[in-house]
Amino acid sequence: MIMRKGDIGAYAEEIFTQPFEDTREEQIDAALRNEKVSHYRVKTIISGPMVESEIYPVYRRRGDTPKRPKKKKSDAAQKNLNAKNAKKKFCRLVNANFTKGDILVTVTYDNEHRPADEDAAHKSLTKYIRRLQSYAKRRGWPQLKYLYVTEYSESDSPKGRIRVHHHIICNFPDRDVAENLWKEGGRTNTKRLQLDSDFNLQGLAMYLVKDPKGKKRWGGSLNLKKPKVYIADRKFRSVKQVEQMLNFEGAVYRLGKLYPSFKLVEEPQVYVNDTYGGYYIYTRLRKKE
To answer: CA 277, CA 70: separation in Å to the nearest integer?
Structure first.
């Protein structure tokens, strides 16, 4: 994707944080209908059957374009935003790469095999994934694709070992074999992925990366498909057309024009900024059956 000069798509949600419904009427006239706004840009992110649509302003002059906020390691808001973006990335990868017929594997350790630290747990997981890859290769199955989430916390064991479990989403077709290839004791469980009629695998993905009691890390194979990202500047002929999306009926109509092959699955979220003017609109859609 080629980034256009002055494009704020990578950080628009950091700039536009005030919900539109909380905006006073006089602010709308003073800030939202801002002459600094030239037009609106549409960023489309396609992850399998799911679409995320972001609509945000482009400004007439470079000097009017909002600058990206400086990151502060101690800023709780920035940490929350980083976590939110990491979850979005994980969910997009899940929806872009997996579907019904693929499986979720959950494995734990018994006391004898409980890892001493995070690195030891990761080595055990890596060995398990290699066994899955080798088994699939010997049988001529498709190359293994996977995403994993590891959750761990300090153990109350006198040896100071950690409690760990792994979740692996993968395209390995045989559930029994997947369970038998785990060699670290503990419990093993597999299940077929079930798709939600609106959000596909979003619910599962969010569950796996929910805020943990302990710590989490996630990763995946190098052969995962990346979500497709498109940017367009000519989808709206005027600011008034964007403002039609501020009510639900208008949003349904406009999004139907933008994405005729997709259905709206949630009401658009609209945010504003009193200083820079304009709207930031985010919504999700799903490919029609």
So the answer is: 20
Contact predicate 243/115, CB 8 Å: no
| C-alpha of 289 from chain center | 22
Question: Distance between CA atoms of 269 and 280, rounded to whole angstroms?
Answer: 8
The tokens describing 155, both together, are 């153990």
The tokens describing 271, both together, are 């945010």
Query: What are the two backbone dihedrals, phi and then psi, of residue 131, each rounded to the nearest 5 degrees?
Result: -65, -40
Phi, psi of 164 (to 5 degrees): -140, 145
Angstrom distance (rounded) from CA 5 to CA 194: 42
Q: State percent of the chain over pLDDT 70.
A: 88
The 3 state secondary structure assigned to 83-133 is HHHHHHHHHHHHHHHCCECEEEEEEECCHHHCCCCHHHHHHHHHHHHHHHH
What are the tens digits of pLDDT across the range 199-221? Answer: 999 999 999 988 655 577 899 99
pLDDT in tens, 48-87: 999 999 999 999 888 889 888 877 655 776 777 777 888 9
pTM: 0.88
Q: Please state, in angstroms and rounded to a whole number, the distance separating the CA atoms of residues 201 and 125.
A: 23
Shortest CA distance to 243 belongs to which of 6, 66, 55?
55
pLDDT of residue 178: 98
Helices (H) and strands (E) in the chain, counts: 8, 12
What residues contact 221, with CB distance under 8 A and at least 6 apart?
A: 144, 145, 146, 147
Query: How confident is the model over 226-231, as a mean pLDDT?
Result: 96
DSSP class of residue 9 equals T
